[in-house]
Amino acid sequence: MQSPNLLPLPEPSFGPAPLLPVPLPGPLPEPGPLPEPFPLRLPPPLPLPLFAIIMESGRVSVIGRRQDPSFFLSFVRV
Q1: For the whole prediction, is pTM greater than 0.70?
Q2: Less packed terminus of the chain by CB within 10 Å, N or C?
Q3: What helix, strand, coil percent values describe the chain, rounded to 5?
Q4: Which tens digits make up the pLDDT trace of 24-51?
Q5: How many Å apart are CA 45 and CA 77, to the nearest integer?
């Protein structure tokens, strides 16, 4: 029984891919007026601030409304 004739496979080519032409888009639209800037939204008035007093010994005393999640913290070194 004869074996079929096997042809060698061509060597794979790992060269750079050919560059395909990319169609350019049509004419660009005329630049229009710039959009209005977003209105500035001011935050609501803040509640009583929370003060942290840093003592001379390095201990921090906090006074104010701590349960309010919208508080802000002020550090005062004495």
Answers
A1: no
A2: N
A3: 0, 20, 80
A4: 777 777 777 766 776 666 666 655 555 6
A5: 25
Domain boundaries, the chain: 46-78
Tell me, what DSSP letter sits at residue 55? Answer: -
Q: CB of 63 within 8 A of CB of 73?
A: no
Distances (CA, A) of 42 to 5, 17, 39, 45: 83, 55, 9, 9
Cα–Cα distance for residue pair 76/78, rounded to 1 Å: 6
Please check whether residue 55 is in contact with residue 31, taking contact to mean a CB–CB distance below 8 angstroms.
Answer: no
Contact 65, 47 (CB under 8 A): yes
